[in-house]
TrEMBL record:
This is Phage holin family protein. Pfam families: Phage_holin_4_2. It comes from Dactylosporangium salmoneum. Residues 126-155 are annotated as: Disordered. The chain crosses the membrane at residues 7-28, 34-51, 58-78, 98-120. Keywords: Membrane, Transmembrane, Transmembrane helix. The keyword Transmembrane helix applies. Residues 126-135 have a biased composition (Basic and acidic residues).
Length: 155
């Protein structure tokens, strides 16, 4: 269920990017737009999940040298790649240019997705909160006293 919520959030943020950034467009009627946005969000998610760790590993020096600003370029390139793949799949999603459309679009999508994912609770968050309510384990005596105390009593 969580992956569907994240997919919906990503599709929504891509749609918002088409409204805010002038070089990002999605075509078709309403039904085709929604389907296109969901598929584009899935493609963008898969590309980010597969390629971003590889790029970060190979270009670690660039991230360190630019204090992480190269991530804007990488995100823009991944959004442009998403546009090319969507075009190959005959989806009506287009990013015109690398600068400023792809870079600003990726920045916008990243910030809005982060905000929405922060506001929408995830099931894993609820499980972590539930596990945090357990009482702490009693302290163990490590040295001295001639005995050791554990959870069940004295040995």
């Amino acid at each position: 269920m969580g992956i569907l919520i994240r997919l919906a959030v990503s599709a929504f943020t891509v749609w918002l990017a088409t409204l805010v950034i002038s070089g990002i467009t999605v075509g078709g009627d309403t039904g085709h737009k929604v389907l296109t946005l969901v598929v584009v969000a899935a493609i963008f998610g898969v590309i980010n999940a597969v390629l971003r760790p590889i790029i970060k590993t190979i270009g670690c020096w660039a991230y360190v040298l630019t204090l992480g600003l190269v991530s804007l370029v990488v995100n823009g390139a991944l959004l442009l790649l998403t546009s090319k793949i969507a075009g190959a799949l005959d989806l009506q999603f287009n990013v015109d240019k690398f600068w400023p459309s792809a870079v600003l679009g990726a920045l916008f999508i990243g910030i809005v997705s982060w905000l929405l994912n922060f506001l929408i609770p995830d099931r894993g968050d609820k499980d972590r909160k539930r596990n945090d309510r357990r009482p702490p384990a009693p302290p163990r005596q490590q040295y001295g006293g001639g005995y050791q105390q554990n959870y069940r009593g004295y040995r």
